[in-house]
Amino acid sequence: MTKAKTSAEKATATAEMTFNTGAEAFKAGLEKAIAGYDSIVGYSKETAEAYAKSAAIAGKGIETINSELYSYSKGAVEDSIAAGKALLASKSIHEAFELQTGFAKTAFETYAEELTKFGELMTATAKNSIAPLQGRYQAWVELVQSARAV
Fold it and tell me: In angstroms, rounded to a whole number, what is the distance separating the alpha carbons of residues 83 and 87?
């Protein structure tokens, strides 16, 4: 009977040790999964904030471009009206031709300047709105690599 009791005790001890080892492994795996989940949630939150910041920057840039476009359009219409009045008040064809030539030259120069300004504004808006998102890919790579390393 003692042999049977000793065998039973050994079996019980082995079962307890196996169970405890399994429980510890499960606990370690669960803690690792929770830590990974927390990292992904943190990454997602930071990414959402980056997108919101990017959208806000893009919105302000578009607002600035719209304001500049409105100002240019308003000025161009006013200049056209003034040139039209000057043409109607001209005393000779030669004077009208010179007025029209001067207006065309000024209008083209202004258009070229404004086109350059719009290009710069669009480039700056694109650069500034992408800036908050630039580090997100690298952050994802680092997150995945740190999860693999654990």
Answer: 6
